[in-house]
Structures are given as C-alpha cells and as structure tokens.
Amino acid sequence: MTQRIITGYVDSPAGRDALALAEVLAGIDPDHELLVTSVYAYNPPEEPAEPSGWRKVLRDRANAELAPVRERLGEPADVTIKPSCGLSPSDGLHRLAVAEDATVIVVGVSHNHGMRRVQAGSITEQTITGSRCAVAIAPAGYAEDAGPLKTVAVAFNGSGESQQALDAAAEIARAAGAELRIVGVVEPAAVWYAAYGGSDAAGDLARIVREDLTAAAGRVEGVERIDVRVLTGEPVKAITEATDDADLLVLGSRGYGPIRRVLLGSVSAKLVRDPACPLLVLPRTAVEDSPAV
After folding, report:
1. How far from 202 is each of 189, 234, 237, CA to CA, in Å?
2. How many CB atoms lie within 10 A of CB 277?
3. In the chain, where are the structural domains located?
4. Cβ neighbours of 111 (radius 10 Å)
5. Alpha helix locations (H) across the chain?
6. What does the alpha-carbon distance between residue 195 and residue 209 come to, in Å, rounded to a whole number?
7. Cα separation of 128 and 135, whole Å?
8. Coil vs helix vs strand at 279
9. Quick check: 124 and 137 in contact, CB under 8 A?
10. How would you label 116-140 residue by residue, b for 16+ Cβ within 10 Å and e otherwise?
11. Cβ contacts of residue 49 below 8 Å, gap of 6+?
C-alpha cells in the first residue's frame, strides 16, 4: 500500500535532519512516496492556480528554499518537491497532510542556543500537537548519522494505544528487516506499593510485566528478531536508556481526547521534548479499530 511521507524543509540543520529521516522512512518500502515542501504563511491559505502580488513573492521564496533539495534528490517519480501555504508553517503541514492523505509528517528539532530539543511553542511542537497523521521527529544532528533502520523500539504497557504502537513498530521492523525491541517499565511507585505484599512482590510485578511483553511479542508475525526488555525506574529515563541506541522509537498517543489526533501524555511529551533517537508518534485511533490486547 502506498504511503505518503511529508517533510517541511528549511535550509537549516533542523531542516536537513528532517529531510534525512524522511528519506530513511520513505526508503523502507518502494511503494512509499516522499513529498518535500517549504511552507509560506498567507491568509487565506487556499492557493489559487496562479498566485499574484505579495502571495507570489512569498511562494517564489518558498520555492527557492527547496533548491538544495532538488539538487540532492532530483525529482524521481516517487518524490514531489513543491511549496505550500498555510496560516503558519505547522498549519501548512497539517493542511498538506490532509490534502495528500499523508501517513507521516517529519520534522526536525531546533539547534538554537545549544538546546537541541523541542521548544515550547516551536513549529515542531505545533506540528506534533493535534496532527491527524503520525509525526516523526528527527533529533538534532541526525543528518550526520542517518542510516538504515536496524533496531525499531516501542514502549509497551498493555494499553490499546501501546498495542497500536507495537503493531506499527512491528510493521516497520518487518519491512526494514530490523530487530524489534519491546520495552516495558515497572515504575518505582508500583514497586513501593508491591512491597507491602511481601519481599517477593516487587519481583512478581516485574515477572508479570515480562509475561505481558512476551505474550505481546508472541503475537507479532514476520519479524525474525524480537528483544523484550523490562526495566524498573522512572519511565522517561528508563525508556531513554533502553532506546538511545535504537534507530526509531514508536510511541502511541494518550487514550482520551479527539480521535485520530496526536495527543501527548506526560511520558510521551517528555520523550518528544528531548529525543535521544528518532521518534514516531502515532495519532490516537478509535478503540474499536484497535487490535485486542
């Protein structure tokens, strides 16, 4: 099935990081199509066939911004390079994703001020929040180390959203011939409460989590290498440490709010804010659409 991957490009380190990750994701399957755009802001955002005046000036600037992409990629049949319009860069990406029925929007992370993380209110954050399709985030400096996917990780806790993430991660790992790493975390508070059950209760809790992850791994088909990891600790730190050498970490959205929108919970929000490896955040889908856990 053809999947369309969109990335917004600006001639900056973050733009090059996003383009590199978009190329990697598009290269997983020959049926994938890549659309690279430079968004210019204008109201109304609907583009006429022949823009004129100030709109034309802005559109021409956005088109010129794409010159390095054309030089790098050319324009093969499975790649489209064109400017687009929105009320803001993030709005333009959202509009284009809907118009093109995109599967993924790919964005980069700011390199400004040495922060190398997703800034509050940034284009990256605005693009992630409320997106109707999945959003992939390339960490700062990714373009320098981009390569094929060898390890695809997923955070799993047994919820419907994490099952959706596992299904997506398994599909990617299968297509890329990569290892699938399923990560579960036993939180300190759970261990603390479990201690009231006796000296073995904490160990029993970790065993139960491992059994759940092993059962989930057993339902995955077509992936040759599956690694199950159970960690104890603060979730964000534990997941980061378990996946900092992964080539992609897949996360599900939180389990309430508008359907088919990306909505970050506390753990996923923190992981997105300071990504240690490329992330793919999925929109929440209807519970009835989700495979049974």
Report:
1. 11, 15, 20
2. 19
3. 4-145, 151-289
4. 15
5. 13-26, 53-65, 67-73, 89-99, 123-128, 142-145, 160-176, 188-194, 201-218, 235-243, 266-273
6. 16
7. 6
8. strand
9. yes
10. bbbeeebbbbbbbbebbbbbbbbbb
11. none
**Distance of alpha carbon 100 from alpha carbon 36, whole angstroms:** 12
Sheet holding 33-41, edge to edge: 79-86, 33-41, 4-8, 104-108, 134-138, 279-281, 248-251, 151-155, 179-186, 226-232
Class in CATH terms, 151-289 = alpha beta
pTM of the complete model? 0.87
Domains 4-145 and 151-289 share a fold: yes
**DSSP letter (8 states) at residue 292:** P
Q: Which residue has the tokens 């390569």?
A: 147
Q: Answer yes or no: are the C-beta atoms of 281 and 161 closer than 8 Å.
A: no
CATH code of the region 4-145: 3.40.50.620
Q: Are strands 134-138 and 104-108 parallel, antiparallel or unpaired?
A: parallel
List the pLDDT tens digit at each of the 293 positions of the chain.
Answer: 568 999 999 999 989 999 999 999 999 988 899 999 999 999 999 988 889 999 999 999 999 999 999 999 987 889 999 999 999 999 999 999 999 999 999 999 876 645 555 565 567 777 877 788 999 999 989 999 899 999 999 999 888 888 999 999 999 999 999 999 999 988 766 554 555 445 555 567 778 888 999 999 999 999 999 999 998 888 888 889 999 999 999 988 765 554 455 555 667 777 877 788 999 998 866 333 433 22
